[in-house]
Task: structure prediction
Amino acid sequence: MEFIGKKQKRQIIIVSIIYLTMIFLCVQFLYLKGIHNLLPIYVFNISGDIFGMAVGYLVFACCIIDVQKNGSDLKYLLYLLNAAYVGLFADAIAWLVDGDPNLIPINMIDNTIYYMCAPAEAYCFWLYTMNYLGINKGIIQKAGKVLRVGFFLAIGLRIINLFTGIYFTIGPDGVYHRSPLYPVSLIFAFLTLISALIAVWIERKHLQLYQVVVFFIYAFAPLIVGVMTLAVYGLSLSAGVIMLVILLMYGVLNVAQGRDKAVADRDLTLASAIQENVLPKTFPYLPERKEFDLFATMTPAKEVGGDFYDFFMLDDDHLTLVMADVSGKGIPAALFMMVSRTLIRNRMLMGESPGKALESVNEQLCEGNKAELFVTVWLAVISLSTGEGIAVNAGHEHPVLRRKDGEYEIVAYKHSPAVATIEGIRFREHEFKLNPGDSLFVYTDGVPEATNEDNELFGTTRMLEALNANPDARPEALLEDIKASIDKFVGDAKQFDDITMLGMHYFGP
Result:
């Protein structure tokens, strides 16, 4: 389960146990009650509910398999599925306990839960639809806030019904009775469904016809069935119809979405491979040179990003180091990354200083930058004979320096703006000097911003602790230790950003 962590695995196991236990309880209660002691229409309803629950567990299993295959975000569909599943269970139990004076409290509580499922399903359908459409701003965001308030109000009225009977009552004989205000209980669900359909209709140009049809089927099929059964007590079809439509939604909407995502993932994987192979990977770099040792790694996230590192000799004495991070994700960021790397390398090889090189690159990247991407860059040139260096930090993470026999410490100084943000920028150069035995570490924000399942950041403090755990390690071992620390901290949480690092040890001339 590549996209499922330990916490999610536990949740899947727990939900599976609950789902199957609920089916077992319905079957067991039906057996204990005795089919011959129930009206035929009750047996029909209960059997339909059990069948619907079996369908629901099938959908749940398919959703989990889908998550394992491509990591699709099915959160809101699973919320909707859970609400519908509880509705089926409550409906089945309601028919089993109806008419039994000894089970009036269970009948009352069970029907209250059943009534709660309608607004819960409608609100989950709204969340699923908005997530599927990818809109959560403007009037949609405001409508979402109103519906959230309406949802809690609807749940509150159902709790109040326990004491007032505004929607339903249980008579002394244990028989369930709808009150004249029962239709009022459907208002929130009706308005929520209509609101979702309005959003679908507004966004119809971005959808296929079959997608629009499925959304409307979910809204109207149970609604029509519900209206039909308003006057027919004893016939309960809405809950089962909803589950069947959820199966249709999964099969038509999410499977099609997953197929499109699989194609996109394949393209992103190819782009990631191309991007990664552009970077220098021959280590040790210039093994005949005894003045330094360096090592660099990039661990790409699943989505293509824009991190890159580079290192090359300008002449026999000067070594250039580059660490950079392009804003954004996907193919545009990858293309911008490759262009940026090429321009920086070319300008440096032409003999320009780091500041002048980035000024030239900035002008070239700003021209026609309709995507409004930018790149943060740490660029340095080091004289191997003297250890003297010139660096420019264009909006990038602060470098980390370790003096001989000391500890790694962050070297903070005033940044210049990121490259490709504003035309005409002048980039501030910073002079530094490496002494024999000193080490340098540069990185992208994927290191301190690595996040665990509790949404905690790895941070610079943990990064420094990892660096200083074995400060005398050679660059390759040092980077391996840091990556191991990040992996241990992150655990099973998904990696959202590239993790790129470069370490250098200066031995001196």
Q: What stands out?
A: The chain has a mean pLDDT of 86. DSSP finds twelve helices and twelve strands in the chain.
